[in-house]
Automatic annotation (TrEMBL):
SMART domains: Y1_Tnp. It comes from Nonomuraea insulae. Pfam families: Y1_Tnp. InterPro entries: Transposase_17, Transposase_17_sf. This is IS200/IS605 family transposase. Residues 14-134 form the Transposase IS200-like domain.
Length: 144
């Protein structure tokens, strides 16, 4: 569960938003080695900073990557994902010529799809219960 240290503030809101993102290489080809993963993490951190988001965790294997991103409500995850994938693909193509053979039609390193899941906070069952127990206008508050 998110602690108070995770709470961020915006001009008109207080929030704790985390997303688990998974990117897969085109055709799930085994592309990355340890050095590539290290560089990808640096690239993703830079892109996240541009979006006022934070890359909290990063890990991956030779054909897919996992990112945990802390983001403000003004950021559309789809736009963040598109930027992360595009910038990483472009920079890796420039910096790592050995990856050129893994770029398919239209120079695509990544599969067109991705996974995005919301994470953190209380389980949905607890949130539902909390909301159900809130008093509606006109209802009396139960005595303690």
């Amino acid at each position: 569960m998110a602690g108070y240290s995770d709470i961020r503030t915006g001009r008109h809101c207080v929030f704790v938003l985390h997303a688990h993102l998974v990117f897969v290489t085109k055709f799930r080809h085994q592309v990355f080695n340890h050095g590539h993963l290290t560089r990808l993490e640096e690239i993703f951190r830079d892109v996240c900073a541009d979006f006022e988001t934070e890359l909290t965790e990063f890990n991956g294997e030779n054909n897919h990557l996992h990112l945990l991103v802390n983001f403000p409500p003004k950021v559309a995850l789809s736009k963040l994902v598109n930027s992360l994938k595009a910038v990483a693909s472009r920079r890796m193509r420039q910096e790592c010529p050995e990856l050129a053979r893994h770029y398919y039609r239209a120079n695509k390193l990544w599969s067109g799809s991705y996974f995005a899941g919301s994470v953190g906070g209380a389980p949905l069952s607890i949130v539902r219960q909390y909301i159900e127990q809130q008093n509606r206008p006109g209802q009396s508050t139960p005595a303690p």
